[in-house]
Design a protein that fits this description.
The complex is a heterodimer of chains A (301) and B (122).
Chain A lengths: L10 H22 L6 H4 L98 H20 L18 H17 L21 E2 L9 H14 L17 E5 L12 E5 L1 H17 L3
Antiparallel strand pairs in A: 1-3, 2-3
Helix pairs in contact in A: 3-4
Chain B lengths: L1 E6 L5 E5 L16 E3 L3 E5 L8 E7 H4 L7 E6 L4 E6 L4 E6 L4 E8 L7 E6 L1
Classes of the chains: A mainly alpha (301), B mainly beta (122).
Chain lengths: 301, 122
C-alpha cells in the first residue's frame, strides 16, 4: 500500500479522538461509582455479623449447626493450603466458600469439584512446566536418535530415488518415526539400489527383493545367527504377506517357519551396507542360492 | 578317506564342482532334490532354519552305503580337484581327482529335505 493512502491522516485529530474516548470512559466510571462496595466499610468487622441460622426460627433445629464462621478479623489475605498439619491436606471440601482479598465472596449453589493438591490442571501444574500448545509429547534421547536416523535415511533415499512416495508422505505435526518406519525406508533404499543399472542383485535376476515384499526387519549383521524374536517377526510378516519372492504363504520348511533372507545377499554385499531381512519360502531360497552361487563363480578369475 | 561334518549350509544346499575351473551353475527347478550341469551339482540339504545336515565326503568305496545313489553324475574336473562348497563359495571339503572327469555319487536318508547326505567320488 502506498503512502498516498495516508495523506488525509492528521495525527493531531487522532490524539483528540483518543482523548475524547478516555473522557467517555471516565464518565462511565463516575456513573458507576455509587454502586461500588465501600471496601473500607467491609473491612470493619463490627458491621458484618457472623452468619447464623439461629436468627431464622423456621430453620433453627432443622439445619445442622455449622461451625463458627471465619474470623473476619483474622481472615487470610493470601491463598493458603492446608498441607501443614491437617490430615485431609490436599483436598478442600466442596461448598466451602472463601473470602477474597477485597472482601468479596463468590456464591454459587453448585458444589465445585474438589481441588487436589499436586494434581496438574489446564493452566499448568505445580511442576511449573508451561502448558503445551499442541504437538506430541517431547522426545526423549532415544526418540531423538530414531528421528535423526530416520532423517538420514530419508536423505539417502532422496538421492537414490527422488520420486519415491515415502518422500512425499505428509505426517501429522506430532508424528514421530518408529523402528518400523525406518525399516520401510531401508526396504525402499535397497530396492532402489537393486533397480540401479548394472546391479547384479536386481529383482529380475531373482536374487533381489521380490515383488511381494511389504515389511522387513533390520539385519544385525550378515550372519545367520537368528534370535527367537527375529524368527517370530519374520514368521508374522510371512504369514501375512507371504514369501517376498513368490508370495506363497507356505514356507515349505520342515518346521513350517519362513526362511530369513538377507537383502542384499551377504555375499553380494562386500561393502557392508545395511541389510534387511525378509521372509522367503524354501523353493525361492534354494533357487536364490543357485543364482548367488552362479554370481560368485562368475566373479572368479 | 572319509570326512564328516554337520553344518547348516546357506540356502540349504551344497555345491559340488572343481573349485579351480570355470563352472556353469545350473538353475534350480521346483520340487527336485538336485540339479546338475556337466561341471556342477547343486544338492538340497535339510532347511537351514530347521537344523543341521550331516555331510559325509570321501572315496566312493569308503563311503558307499547299501542302496542306489539318489544322484550319479560325471563332472568335468579339468583342474583335477573336486570340492564341496556352500552356495556362497565357502569350502567344506575338497580332494584331488585322478582324471579330468570324475564320477560323483550321492546318497541321502530321504529324497526330500534330507538331514544325512553322503558324497562319494570315484
Amino acid at each position: 500500500m502506498s503512502s498516498a493512502a495516508y495523506q488525509g491522516f492528521d495525527p493531531r485529530k487522532f490524539k483528540t479522538l483518543l482523548g475524547s474516548a478516555r473522557s467517555v470512559s471516565d464518565q462511565w466510571a463516575d456513573l458507576l461509582e455509587p454502586w461500588q462496595p465501600d471496601l473500607e466499610k467491609l473491612k470493619d468487622k463490627s458491621e458484618l455479623p457472623p452468619p447464623s441460622t439461629t436468627g431464622i426460627p423456621s430453620l433453627a433445629g432443622i439445619l445442622p449447626v455449622s461451625p463458627p464462621g471465619p474470623d473476619l478479623a483474622n481472615r487470610p489475605t493470601q491463598p493458603t493450603t492446608r498441607q501443614g498439619n491437617d490430615q485431609n491436606a490436599g483436598i478442600l471440601p466442596a461448598g466451602l466458600s472463601t473470602f477474597l482479598i477485597d472482601g468479596t465472596e463468590t456464591l454459587s449453589d453448585a458444589f465445585p469439584d474438589p481441588v487436589i493438591i499436586g494434581q496438574q490442571y489446564a493452566a499448568g501444574g505445580p511442576s511449573g512446566r508451561p502448558p503445551r500448545r499442541g504437538g506430541g509429547p517431547p522426545e526423549g534421547p532415544v526418540g531423538r536418535f530414531i528421528s535423526q536416523v530416520y532423517e538420514a535415511k530419508l536423505r539417502t533415499l532422496a538421492e537414490l530415488d527422488p520420486s519415491n512416495e515415502l518422500l512425499t508422505t505428509i505426517q501429522a505435526p506430532d508424528w514421530r518415526p518408529s523402528q518400523s518406519n525406518i525399516n520401510k525406508i531401508d526396504l525402499e533404499i535397497i530396492k532402489a539400489r537393486q533397480r540401479a543399472p548394472g546391479a547384479i542383485d536386481s529383482q529380475v535376476s531373482g536374487i533381489g527383493i521380490g515383488p511381494f515384499a511389504r515389511e522387513s526387519i533390520q539385519a544385525r549383521s550378515g550372519r545367520r545367527d537368528w534370535t527367537e524374536e527375529e524368527r517370530a517377526e519374520i514368521n508374522r510378516i510371512g504369514s501375512r504377506y507371504g514369501c517376498h519372492t513368490c508370495g506363497t504363504l507356505e514356507p515349505g520348511s520342515a518346521s513350517g517357519t519362513f526362511f530369513l533372507d538377507h537383502q542384499s545377499p551377504t555375499r553380494l554385499n562386500p561393502s557392508g551396507q545395511n541389510q534387511i531381512v525378509l521372509p522367503q519360502c524354501m523353493s525361492c531360497s534354494v533357487r536364490q542360492g543357485g543364482l548367488v552361487s552362479s554370481t560368485v563363480k562368475r566373479g572368479k578369475p | 578317506m572319509r570326512l564328516t561334518t554337520s553344518i547348516r549350509p546357506a540356502y540349504s544346499q551344497v555345491v559340488i564342482c572343481d573349485p579351480t575351473a570355470k563352472v556353469e551353475v545350473p538353475l534350480w527347478e521346483r520340487g527336485v532334490p538336485f540339479v546338475a550341469s556337466d561341471t556342477c551339482i547343486l544338492f538340497m540339504c535339510y532347511p537351514e532354519i530347521d537344523g543341521p545336515t550331516g555331510i559325509t565326503f570321501g572315496d566312493g568305496d569308503d563311503v558307499q552305503v547299501h542302496g542306489d545313489p539318489i544322484c550319479e553324475r560325471m563332472l568335468k574336473t579339468p583342474g583335477r580337484q573336486i570340492a564341496v562348497e556352500t552356495a556362497e563359495g565357502d569350502g567344506i571339503f575338497s580332494m584331488p581327482t585322478t582324471g579330468t572327469e570324475t564320477k560323483v555319487r550321492i546318497w541321502s536318508n530321504r529324497s526330500w529335505l534330507p538331514d544325512k547326505v553322503i558324497i562319494g567320488v570315484d
